[in-house]
């Protein structure tokens, strides 16, 4: 569980420690109404038979409780079409930034040691491995490089360069990043690392939720607590080998079990709708 120290104990800050008071709120962008849109043209030479993505997204959103803020995006990798609800809403990344740094590190010739760090950061969500990668490869500059390369418009480095978990991301950007990975020489390595994620992360957190639940999928999970009541819980990956999916959430007043169940319900409804539509 990644957590952060409170303002009242700022002089005793430990990187990624526990908050004892609510910090400044993360950036927010609340639309007047849910946004669902197809925004990306089909790749050349791929099938063009579309699936009703907006209806599938609506099915997932229908499971969201009043105390959850959710960004949900789905991109059909076979048609290039994308639909989202709250997809442009910014969230703190928590451990999702590990996937961004992995893409940057593997875009160049990486040492065996760095490849091992990337594997641990993606599979067991190892914070120590991420700390090393962040400091060795430019931190926020790496985020900017990936954002430029993958066309990510809502992704930016953290205000505090030491807090990689406060990288700003959106669900729309994350499915674009997953599509970018599909065309990358590092795809097989990244996919294998994500698929190897164990039930229990390096910090002891249960990461079997969302796309890493009982679905034909693999993904990267993120979690971060701001005491006393806000839990960031994220899941993004590839579902049924066809759909890049990102679920980013802030859940207020929820237990970790309840928060996992919330993302499981959204994922289950989305998956069932995509099966029916396909």
Describe the protein's architecture and organization.
There is one protein chain. Helices cover about 35% and strands about 20% of the residues. With about 280 residues, the protein is α+β, with helices and mostly antiparallel strands. It has a single domain, classed as 3-Layer(aba) Sandwich (Beta-lactamase), CATH 3.40.710. Helix 1 runs antiparallel to helix 8, helix 2 packs antiparallel against helix 3 and helix 3 packs across helix 4. The radius of gyration is 17 Å and the shape is globular.
The Cα radius of gyration reads 17 Å
How much beta, percentage-wise? 15-25%
Give the mean pLDDT. Answer: 86
Extract low-pLDDT stretches. 5-48
N-C termini distance: 36 Å
CATH architecture: 3-Layer(aba) Sandwich
From the spread of the alpha carbons, the general shape counts as: globular
Q: Which class in CATH terms?
A: Alpha Beta
Largest sheet: 6 strands, mixed
The domain count comes to: 1
Fourth CATH level, the homologous superfamily: DD-peptidase/beta-lactamase superfamily
SS-derived structural category:
alpha+beta
SSE topology string: EHEEEHHHHEHHEEEH
Per CATH, what is the topology? Beta-lactamase
Across the major sheet, the strand order is 1-6-7-8-2-3
Based on DSSP secondary structure assignment, what is the total number of beta strands?
A: 8
The helix count comes to 8
The share of residues in helices is: 25-40%
């Amino acid at each position: 569980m990644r957590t952060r120290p409170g303002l009242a104990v700022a002089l005793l800050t430990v990187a990624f420690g526990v908050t004892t008071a609510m910090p400044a709120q993360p950036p927010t962008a609340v639309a007047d109404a849910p946004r669902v849109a197809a925004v990306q043209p089909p790749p050349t030479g791929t099938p063009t038979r579309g699936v009703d993505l907006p209806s599938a997204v609506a099915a997932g959103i229908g499971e969201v409780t009043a105390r959850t803020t959710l960004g949900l995006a789905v991109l059909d990798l076979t048609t290039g079409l994308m639909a989202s609800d709250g997809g442009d809403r910014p969230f703190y990344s928590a451990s999702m930034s590990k996937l961004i740094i992995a893409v940057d590190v593997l875009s160049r010739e990486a040492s065996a040691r760095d490849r091992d760090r990337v594997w641990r950061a993606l599979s067991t969500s190892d914070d120590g491995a991420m700390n090393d990668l962040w400091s060795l490869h430019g931190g926020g500059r790496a985020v900017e490089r990936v954002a430029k390369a993958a066309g990510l418009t809502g992704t930016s480095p953290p205000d505090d360069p030491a807090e990689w978990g406060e990288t700003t991301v959106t669900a729309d950007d994350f499915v674009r990043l997953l599509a970018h990975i599909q065309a990358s020489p590092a795809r097989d390595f990244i996919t294998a690392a994500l698929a190897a994620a164990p039930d229990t992360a390096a910090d002891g957190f249960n990461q079997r939720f969302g796309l890493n639940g009982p679905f034909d999928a693999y993904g990267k999970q993120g979690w971060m607590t701001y005491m006393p009541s806000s839990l960031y819980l994220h899941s993004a990956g590839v579902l049924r080998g066809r759909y890049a999916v990102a679920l980013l959430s802030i859940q207020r007043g929820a237990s970790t079990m309840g928060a996992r169940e919330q993302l499981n319900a959204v994922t289950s409804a989305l998956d069932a709708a995509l099966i029916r539509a396909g």
